[in-house]
Amino acid sequence: MSLDSARSRCYPAHVWELFKRAQIPLRVAAVIALAYLGYVFLARRTADQRYAESHQLTGPSAEQNAKFASTYGGSALKITQFLARDAVIVEDQTTVLCYGVLNAKSVRIEPPVGDIYPALNRCVDVSPQHDTKYTLTAEGNDGKTATAEFTLAVKPDLENLPRITSFKVTRHRVEQGKHYFDIAFEFANASKVTIDPPVFSPLEDSAPFGQWMVAPDKTTTYTLTVMDKKGRKASRQLTVEVPKG
Q1: What is the pLDDT of residues 42-61, one digit of tens each?
Q2: Could you please report the per-residue DSSP string of 232-244?
Q3: Which of 128, 155, 182 is at the close of a domain?
Q4: Which residues span the domain enclosing 185?
């Protein structure tokens, strides 16, 4: 029995004919699919090789190795960093002070700051109210010490500085040939007020304004000074003209 006659027993003649006709397109499709998969594989492999070549990681240079060994190698005491995040801050602001030491058994900072201890990289908050020089001292296991220092500049907050906002004569009158002047003043951000030449005793924690009367015999210049709790001052002068005759 031929192969065709055997197959005709299992399948109708027209079905088998359709199957034989479909074999050629299927084979072509299989060849195309295999070729495509091979192309994708080779293309991806080539791309990976190019990427690896263009991004090849090179080891550190001899100079870099020497620098690293000089800084972090050995057992010698070293201060690796000591600085502030900001070179200048405004009064009442906070910045960060950072330090790092190697092979130290103890560290201290003057003036004292927050909790510190030997560390490769540690930062603490500081809020100095004036220019401050910080000094780091590290001690090694052999008793030797290393120091580093820097100065953190602090500038005043202009909005909070003492200031005199008004200082003037509000009234002038003459009684029995004598000249009388009422003088008023206003100020901000201060707690103490003085006048020169003295007309009243220094005022402590007074209201931010005041008034007094003077009767000078001649033209006189008065200097009003206000001062805050930190000792910062502001002054202004006022000349009171006394007519002659």
Answers
A1: 656 665 566 445 544 444 56
A2: -EEEEEEEE----
A3: 155
A4: 159-240
